Amino acid sequence: MTESGYTIPLGRLIGVLIAVGGLYHALTPWVFGHAYETPAAISSVASGLTLLVFGGLRAAGVRGWPIWVCAAAGLWVLSAPQALGLGVHGLANNEALWGGLFVVVLSGLAALDQWFGGPTPVASAPY
User: Which of 30, 35, 37, 45 has a Cα at 20 to 30 A from 113?
Assistant: First the structure.
């Protein structure tokens, strides 16, 4: 008896993780209480929605450019507190640091997956 199932490609899983992280990042001005700081709030919402959209495109199976847009947005998330001079909120800075690193590392993994081969199964489940 054979077991039929499906596999989830690594790039799509990374796209889902980036999209969920982007949604979280878009909500951080209200979570960490810096929504009143207009540059920080605009940066967080814009970069979070960018990650949500382009991570979602990668999760939907679009290969190539969406992951590079995510990598650029991750670099912006990583450097935005310093670039905008927003060193007031420790939690917001930590979220930007870890969130940016998270996106850059995941984008790098997805790029390596695209470069060195097709879909890499990371999980399988029966129908």
Answer: 45
| DSSP H or E segment with residue 67 | helix 65-83
- The CA-atom distances, in angstroms, between 83 and each of 25, 36, 78, 87 are 17, 18, 10, 10
**Tokens 């790039």 — which residue?**
11
pLDDT tens digits in sequence order for the chain, 127 residues long: 445 567 778 888 999 999 999 999 999 889 888 788 788 889 899 999 999 999 999 999 888 889 999 999 999 998 888 888 766 567 777 888 888 899 999 999 988 887 876 554 555 555 4
As a 3-state breakdown, the chain gives helix, strand, coil percent values, each rounded to 5, of 70, 10, 20
Name 79's Cβ contacts closer than 8 Å, sequence gap at least 6: 100
Q: Is 18 exposed, middle or buried (0-12, 13-18, 19+ CB in 10 A)?
A: buried
Distant-in-sequence, close-in-space partners of 83: CB < 8 Å, separation ≥ 6: none
Angle at the Cα of 87 (from 82 to 93), degrees rounded to 5?
A: 80
